[in-house]
């Protein structure tokens, strides 16, 4: 069975997709851009963008009733791999020991010209 997960504490989808889906005890978030769900604005600094993207991810997970300890995999999409250390600095504030598996990929362009987009897979 598939269950839609939605919260107003994260930005609404900007296309034909869901913020997250739960299926077979797993929660799959869509990539979260660094958009403030209240103002609709996006910070310019890459560290602030990484923080807002993660805040959006965790707002969705909270709606699903799980926390960071349930995250098993993250994928981080970044515009410039030279920003990796700065993004990592922010990332480690959101996850503690027993870190989830992670991929980090430099991409040519992200929606809304963001510098960062983050998605996760979590256990129920």
TrEMBL record:
Annotated coiled-coil segments of the chain: none
CDD domains assigned: YjgF_YER057c_UK114_family
InterPro entries per UniProt: RidA (IPR006056), RidA_CS (IPR019897), YjgF/YER057c/UK114 (IPR006175)
Xref: Pfam families: Ribonuc_L-PSP
Family: Belongs to the RutC family.
Matching NCBIfam families: Rid family detoxifying hydrolase
PANTHER family, alphabetized: 2-IMINOBUTANOATE/2-IMINOPROPANOATE DEAMINASE RIDA, 2-IMINOBUTANOATE_2-IMINOPROPANOATE DEAMINASE
Protein name as it appears in the record: RidA family protein
Species: Alkaliphilus flagellatus
The organism's taxonomic lineage, starting at the top: Bacteria, Bacillati, Bacillota, Clostridia, Peptostreptococcales
């Amino acid at each position: 069975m598939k269950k839609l997960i939605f919260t107003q504490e994260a930005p609404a989808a900007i296309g034909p997709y869901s913020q997250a889906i739960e299926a077979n005890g797993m929660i799959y978030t869509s990539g979260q851009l660094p958009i403030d769900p209240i103002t609709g604005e996006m910070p310019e600094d890459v560290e602030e963008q990484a923080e807002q993207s993660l805040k959006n991810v965790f707002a969705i997970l909270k709606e699903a009733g799980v926390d960071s300890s349930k995250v098993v995999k993250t994928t981080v999409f970044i515009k410039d791999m030279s920003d990796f250390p700065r993004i990592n600095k922010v990332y480690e504030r959101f996850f503690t020991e027993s870190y989830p598996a992670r991929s980090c990929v430099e991409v040519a362009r992200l929606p809304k010209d963001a510098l960062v987009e983050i998605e996760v897979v979590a256990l129920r």
